[in-house]
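Reopening this one. Same input as before:
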Amino acid sequence: MEDTKASKVKGTILLIEDDPAIRRMLNIAFQDTGLKAVEAETGNDGIKAVIHHKPDLVLLDIGLPDISGLEVVQNVRGWSKVPIIVLSANGQEGLKVQCLEQGADDYVTKPFGVAELMARIRVVLRREISAKSPSESPVFVAGNLRVDLSAREVYLGSERIRLTPLEYKLLTTLIKHAGKIVTHRQLLAEVWGPDYTEESQYLRLYIGYLRKKLSDGAACIVNEPGVGYRLTVPEAVAE
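Same output, byte for byte:
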């Protein structure tokens, strides 16, 4: 049986979705999880609800009856950093990239499994909690992977892993967005600079280097075909 409970994570979820069946399904999934749902059926009502309810996370349908979900992302990102997970029956890579580059934190294609969606919600909420928590020791830990960001050192268990400056910068960029899809253009811009956003061969090459060196670690660099990469690190924390 699938575990759909978002245990140990509390918060208010704004669900901007015009399909009552999906709203009903998610409200059932949120029961006994510590998550509370607030609903809006249109994009404009959703924008107003972000202002009024100040949710901890927004679940946003891309196909709304008044304005598109992409327009909602663009509007909200002009004044709020609230995490946004897009829900869409449209799996086109171009639309995914647009949503992510406009500021969405994740993109889930319909039909989706409730357990998978709840896992994505937990990752985003825990990342937000971690980002808001004061940190005296900037150390990222996931399983047997340990990255000391102040000392610029990477370990798998007790073994120190030697990374080149570019490999380290790529890894720390993925860590900064852990659990979130980072598009090819975003990674190239952050690691190599804005003049390299079309040089996807650099990214493929260095992702390959990282995967090889971290092959025994808990970190998993997942390819989102045509879109970007996600560092999947279950129960990852920043100490």
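So the earlier flakiness isn't reproducible anymore. For the record, Confidence is low (pLDDT under 50) at residues 1-7.
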